[in-house]
Amino acid sequence: MTREIAVSLASRLCAGGMAKPPIIAAFRRSFYNSTSFLDELYTSEDADDALIAACTANEAGLLFDEIARDVHVVAPTLPDFVALSHIRHAVVVTSDHTTLIYIAPTLRDIAVLKTHLPQSQDIVARLRITTPARLSEFLRLYYERALADNAVNIVETTSRGFSARIVVTGRQGILLGLLTASILFGLVLAPSCLWFIVHMLFSVFFSGCILLRLLAMRAMVRRETRVLPTVPAYKLPVYSIMIALYKEADVVPQLVRAMTKLNWPRSKLEVTFVCEADDFATIAAFEDQKLPYGFKVIPVPGIGPRTKPKALNYGLQLSRGEFVVVYDAEDRPHPNQLLEAWQRFSAGESNLGCLQAPLVIANAHEGWLARLFAFEYAVHFSGLLPWLARNGLVLPLGGSSNHFRRSCLEGVGGWDPYNVTEDAELGTRLARRGFHVEMLSLPTIEDAPTTTDVWLPQRTRWLKGWMQTWLFEMRHPKQFLRDLGFRRFLVYHTLMAGLIVSSLLYPLILVFIAYSGLNLILDNAAAADRGILVYDCMNITMGYLSFHALGKRSSAGKEIKGSILRVVPFYWMLVSVAAWRAVKQLYTQPFLWEKTPHRPAAARESPDPSR
Predict the structure, then answer these.
(1) Residue 270, in any domain of the structure
(2) What is the CA radius of gyration of the chain?
(3) Does residue 219 sit within a domain?
(4) Residue 602 in 3-state DSSP?
(5) What is the pLDDT of residues 378-436, one digit of tens each?
(6) 98 lies in which domain range?
(7) Per the domain annotation, does 168 fall within a domain?
(8) CA-to-CA distance for 555 and 553, rounded, in angstroms?
(9) Helix (H, G, I), strand (E, B) or coil at 249
């Protein structure tokens, strides 16, 4: 019966003024994609949603009507983290106490309505047809406060209270106080002994980071782009893309172009641009674009912290995809990246919760800072993360190009809205809940900051978030150890704590090397100081060399032109400045999200995205 209804609906659309070619194309796509003819009609270029809905109403023998803003919604109610986009009806009570039922029907729904409504004239008088987009937007506005509250609180209610909302617990505060008091007593009673113990302890973390790089380099395999087999469109599920933006009006045209290049059936692709409600410039930039079907802008109300993870939690409740990927405003993902991710999920086990695509920097030629940033990404995404993934270790996810099973993402509670490096924290939480994270081969092209005034706040935010993550993961260290197991627990702390400690102490080690070297020249150095000096010199030298060697082993690192090794000492000094700035912010402004501005990259020469 649905076929007859589709033919009849097509005739009504032609009579209503819709051209025949898009109607015929919608029929074809519904066959090849195994989708609804109605959904394909809405995806047609220049589709008139009101005309489609009005003809649908005529076909069903009902009225097409707008939903009034002053009604009270009886159903659906809003459970935690519901996907409102899946809901196709709303029961409302108007101001004059009339009950109305608004629906965005499928062809099957129309068939049921035509069969049973003639015997239910009371229901016919109450039924109204609307478009899926209007129904979704109406429900979003009606439940805006509840959606925002869910976005803020969901991680704490689903993940055993683990959130960065509390920076340091009372017990942790006592331990930090005792540690500080012990150091002060040591400075008074035995300063040289204290210096030796603390120095060697922290140096071990520095050595641990070097060891991880060497292990990753030893096990590195050449990244090969997989040849993706042809997949019939009807087998593909709905895929949701979420992009959180704030003050990004300049890159909106580039971003929309990048999303339209993705190889995925349009009727099964949902692209959500999540913007702050008061970011009028960015929202206006989207209004100036001709957004395809499935591309929508969602304003996020100013409730709770103004952070990217809160915005993503809000958007997740309004998306409908079986799989979800997060991109950044300046991203240009490989057109086939979604296909690779879906095939990897399909071939993997059910506990494969996330896939991380490698991030490749396009503008390494724009100065020494961009060059070092690009090289650092090559070390991280082509060297360290693949090694961690192959060995089943904890992956600190990158903030972009994370592909998730929706069920997995909702099961762990989404993102922590109070963590300013939500990606690394989510990777840890996934591991604790028994999910695996693996790497993709097809990359996403990004741009690096080119000036320190842009780079420094971004790196401060990353390091502050890693500190937040380490602190709340260590609230219950025994449970953390049980969740991860000894091997993953040890590597996690070597990586996470090692990164924080080495970033903070890097300049102090350089000062000690200079001071001890001077004493050695003047023959004033003690034997213990000489031993520490040798250890520090080996640490620093191996740190530089292991970083450089791991990056150069990767295909992305080999393509970066210009000096690397000579500039690494200065780059790491900048990292240390950001680390100390992060410590200050962790105390004074723990939830401050320092925005990284982006600019269009259309005129730049980008690396080959197929690599």
Answers:
(1) no
(2) 28
(3) no
(4) coil
(5) 999 999 999 999 999 999 999 899 999 999 998 899 999 999 999 989 999 999 999 99
(6) 2-139
(7) no
(8) 7
(9) helix
